[in-house]
Amino acid sequence: MSPPKKKLHIFIVSDATGTTAEMVINAVLVQFKDIKPVFKKFPYIRTKEQITAILSQANVVEGIVIYSLVSQELRSWIRKEKLKMDIFTIDLLGPILERIRKVWDAIPVLEPGLLRGIGEESIRLAESIDFTLKHDDGQGLETMEKANLIILGVSRTSKTPTSLYLSCNHGLKVANVPIILGVKPPDKVFLLKTQKIGFTIAPERLAFIRQKRLEYAGPIDYADTTHVKKELAYCHRIFNHIKGLQVIDVTNSSIEEIANRIMEGRQEMLGRKS
Questions:
Q1: Contacts of 152 (CB under 8 A, 6+ apart)
Q2: What ranges do the domains of the chain cover?
């Protein structure tokens, strides 16, 4: 039996969102398998009083304070106050700012949150793509409510590539759910108020697409036109029971064209809500 992990209280203090500091700390902590971190994040810190209160909390639990503050005044205040409480702190930005200033004789603008437009946008994009991959083809039902968009349709109607295109190009978290003949979709598909899109397609076109992919298919009637028509008819019956569903015919449409139609519908929907 392995020994219990050591609990370490980590207070993250930032004058922006604190996401950058959190990522740095997590990158370090994965190297320590015997530590169980307990995070407490304090974003958008602007005053000395806020900092003193945070340091007092950290002192009670013998935690460490990791801060990413561009304000020299606030960084100096932490260095002063920590001596009164004997708290261990780590300054993520101060030493780097000072080193660059001296080496290149440059003056930092010292404006909080400048990284947010670059770094955090990349983080959100990565999170969207990760979400979409984990919610492909009916997976991840337990967290489907976090999706920005739900796509439904029978097999081989371009649900997966369209979902990934929307994630990569528009930062949307997309879940796609297959409609299977005779199988009722999960209740969340009907209950969630998330934007929902239903893909339909001409039966002959779908049969042709499936014929080309028969090596990946299961049932022998997978590409049979008669069976395909039954699937699509069942799919449309399901669509009729989903409130607010936008149905898109993807026959002979490119992924970009489908995505553009979805985004147009999304803008209209958001416009009605505002």
A1: 159, 176, 177, 178, 179, 185, 189, 196, 197, 198, 199, 235, 238, 239, 242, 245
A2: 6-115, 120-273
% of the chain residues with pLDDT over 70? 89
Unique residue bearing structure tokens 């796509």 = 151
What is 120-273's CATH number, 3.30.160, 3.40.1350, 3.30.450, 3.40.50? 3.40.50
Judge if pTM exceeds 0.85. no
**pLDDT tier at 118 (50, 70, 90 boundaries)?**
very low
Q: What are phi and psi of 164, to 5 degrees?
A: -70, -35
pLDDT at 256: 92
Instruction: State CA 69 to chain mean position distance.
Output: 26
Q: Which residues of 25-61 are buried (b: 16+ CB within 10 A; e: fewer)?
A: beeeeeeeeeeebebeebeebeeeeebeebbeebbee
Fold designation for 6-115: Rossmann fold (3.40.50)
Of the candidates 188, 199, 216, the one whose C-alpha atom is nearest the C-alpha of residue 160 is 199
Q: Return d(Cα 244, Cα 236) in angstroms, integer.
A: 14
- Among 205, 220, 139, 126, which Cα is nearest to 175's? 139
108, 97 Cβ separation under 8 angstroms: yes
* 45, 14 Cβ separation under 8 angstroms: yes
Higher-confidence position of 130 and 219:
130
Spatial strand order of the sheet with 88-91 comes to 35-42, 6-14, 64-68, 88-91
The string of pLDDT tens digits covering residues 54-101 is: 999 999 999 999 998 888 889 899 989 988 888 889 888 777 777 777
CATH topology match: 6-115 vs 120-273 = yes
Q: Measured between alpha carbons, how far is 191 from 194 in angstroms, rounded to an integer?
A: 9
